[in-house]
Amino acid sequence: MAHRNFRKEDFVKDEGSKQYQVEFRKGNIGIGSDLIVERENDNGEYETLQAEIRRHDDSIFVCWSEPFNGRVIFDE
Question: Judging by beta carbons within 10 Å of its beta carbon (0-12, 13-18, 19+), is residue 64 exposed, middle or buried?
Answer without folding.
Answer: middle
